[in-house]
Amino acid sequence: LGDHLEAASPVEASFWPIHPTLDRLLQYKFLVFPFKSTDWSGQLCTSSSTTNCKGHHAGDLTFWPTVGMGAGGVYKKAYRTNQEIREAIRPDSYAMSYVYENFKWPHCSQAGWTFTAVDDAEKEMDARNSPQHQIYNPGTPTPPNI
Questions:
Q1: What is the pLDDT of residue 52?
Q2: Taking a C-beta distance cutoff of 8 angstroms, is the pair 136, 126 a contact?
Q3: What is the DSSP string of 55-103?
Q4: CA separation for the pair 25, 136 (Å, rounded)
Q5: Which of 95, 84, 105 is closest to 32 using CA atoms?
Q6: CA-CA distance, 44 to 82, in Å (whole number)?
Q7: Looking at the predicted structure, is the pLDDT value of residue 46 above 80?
Q8: Strand partners, 16
């Protein structure tokens, strides 16, 4: 699949079908079953690397500038850190220049993987936050770690 270890992976052609899918899945996760913690600390590299995984830390600048909402609600092109990008795609404070039409993956459904619909997840989240419902059950089967 090419070199996706380093932060310059966007120069590899196979990066482009993968990256938007992961971006979309991350936004889906924020909407359907948010992380309990978004802490970005600890060891990042799980393989040997002589670069200390430069480009993968929260404060590292991205390889290319990104268009996002800046001060005063004006969109501008700027180099942003990984953390700034992750915060900009959060649905509760969305600040990117694009929006996904939906969070449906028909090819996954055809293979037997079901994803909780965003509208259903919002209802489940409301129910989970009510005093009588403290357990979240997104249904089965679900993909691991989603």
A1: 73
A2: no
A3: T-STTPBPSS-EEEE-GGG-EEEE--BHHHHHHHT-GGG--BS---S--
A4: 19
A5: 105
A6: 13
A7: no
A8: none
**HSE, side-chain direction, 13 A CA sphere, residue 138:** 21
The pLDDT, as a whole number, for residue 122 is: 65
| Alpha carbon distance, N-terminus to C-terminus of the chain | 24
36 pLDDT band, cuts 50/70/90, is: confident
Question: What predicted TM-score, i.e. pTM, was given to this entire model?
Answer: 0.68
Instruction: Say how many C-beta atoms besides its own lie within 10 A of residue 49's C-beta.
Output: 13
CA distance 61 to 85: 10
Higher pLDDT, 60 or 40: 60
- Say yes or no to pLDDT of 104 above 80: yes
- Asked whether the beta carbons of 26 and 43 are under 8 A apart, the reply is no
Maximum distance among all Cα pairs of the chain, rounded to whole angstroms: 52
CB-based contacts of 19: which residues, under 8 Å, 6+ apart?
A: 10
